[in-house]
Amino acid sequence: MITNEVTKKSRNVILALLFLGWSLGNLDRYIMNYAVVSITGDLQLDASSTGIILSAFFLGYAIMQIPGGWLADKFGAKRILLTAVIMWSIFTGLTAIAWSLTAMIVIRFLFGIGEGGFQPSSSKIIATIFPKEERGRAMSIMLTSGGIVSLIVPLLAAYLLGTIGWRMMFIIIGAFGAIIAYLYWKYIQLPKAETVDATETGNLAVRVSFKELLKTPLMWNLIIAYFCIYAVNWGLVSWIPTYLQKNRGLDLMSIGWAQTIPAITTIIGVYGSGYIIDKLPKGMEKVLGAISCAMIGILLYLMFTAKTVTLFIGYQTVVSIFIAFVITLLPVIVLKKLPSSITGSAMGIANTGGQLAGFVTPMAIGFMVDAFNGSFDAAFWMLIGFALICIVSLVTLNDQKGALLKA
């Protein structure tokens, strides 16, 4: 079994390094949602153009998910991991020189291409070095990076944008990427050849083709679920700062303080979800996932109809817990139900749905806001619709139908 070739101490070191990388990637994504307020002012852009900028990254990121996963399976996860960090650091720094809408879109798109191989390759590393019963916890630790960064970013962004400006801010973030790339090169050491525990594969052939993966009902359920939950997540994350500023009258610093509360609950929700999922009996995970999506839909309605900012933040705080559970659940399904030899490809395929949502949703919301004279009501109804579709996808998720990949 491959996990025996990596000591517990080495696994923890690698997990910590992967956490740093995930944190840096999340930092750039989240901080852009605040920087775009200054960028649109400097470049004189409307809401539709703002949505396109926010979506450009996700188009490149989505395009690279499947190739990134395939490359990680074929050439090794560490190589793809290093390439991803180096490329995204370069284009993060280049964001600082954007002089027009077109330049910003191209740079953000190429940044997404660069980062696209990181998630599937890091997920493959987790599946390779951790035993199956610990993968949920490991993945939840990775995903807490989003919550921690979302806690820090609002106040950090308000300070940096008010002092050094958005251009210098992106140069500094790009420099941090170079440091992390060096740490990966020096300290991430993986087994040279993969062997798979027999209990992981059962009666299945470990080598499953890309075409066979796409024929599996489980994968299509996951793609749809990924798309829906990330449509809700990125729809909220990308537009809440602008919504609170323009529709609720808050300044950037007030928004920063207000967003620390849901950020804390996201950290707790993601980290706790990993432990809960590892303990759930078979089949119960999709039930709890569907219930969580139903609660998300209800809470979204309560958010946009809230009479006060306090109520809005309160409902956002609760909805973040349910979003955290579903976002943690989906990759754990991939890590636990599929052989580690194809984790990179499978994660890339599934996560393509999530990143396409990241591309479509911010842009769609921008167009909706312009079309409805600044109102976000139609956008919230769209997100509620995605929560309902996610319920159907999880309820009908049945890996027994994909006999080829039966765990």
Notable traits:
407 residues, mainly alpha, 80% helix, 0% strand, disordered C terminus
Order of helices and strands: HHHHHHHHHHHHHHH
pLDDT < 50 stretches:
194-206, 400-407
Q: Give the percentage of residues in beta strands.
A: under 5%
Write down the Rg: 20 Å
**N-to-C terminal Cα separation, in Å?**
17 Å
Shape: globular
List how many beta strands DSSP finds. 0
Sheet with most strands: none
Number of helices: 15
Mean pLDDT equals 81
Q: Helical percent range?
A: over 70%
Determine the structural class based on helices, strands and strand pairing.
Answer: mainly alpha
Task: Please summarize what this structure is.
The chain is 80% helix and 0% strand. The protein has helices at residues 8-43, 47-75, 77-94, 101-115, 118-129, 135-163, 165-187, 198-201, 210-214, 217-246, 252-279, 284-304, 309-337, 343-371, 377-395.
